[in-house]
Specification:
With about 100 residues, the chain is an all-alpha fold. The chain contains 5 helices and no strands.
Amino acid sequence: MSAKSSKSTPDRRRKYDDAFKAEALRLASESRSTQAAAQQLGISPKLLYRWQQAQLVAEVGSVEVARDPEVRQLRAQLKRAEQELDILKKALVIFGQPTR
């Protein structure tokens, strides 16, 4: 057996810019399934989960708080309440228009 030198094999790891990561995280948050979003983007679901975890840690400030189930539950409730508020605002605009 011959050992291949590391210089002869190119680096096969793909590098993604911040814009792609931000778009992937947005798509994953809007999608019902992170795996489906990853498949649509052509990336590994594990990679997308890792980006989500890094984003959460950056927002919260520590890994322990990011992994706390209560914090995750409260964030999910907040996200849902914000979505409901957006829907109600749009409905107010629609129903607030004068009829012809």
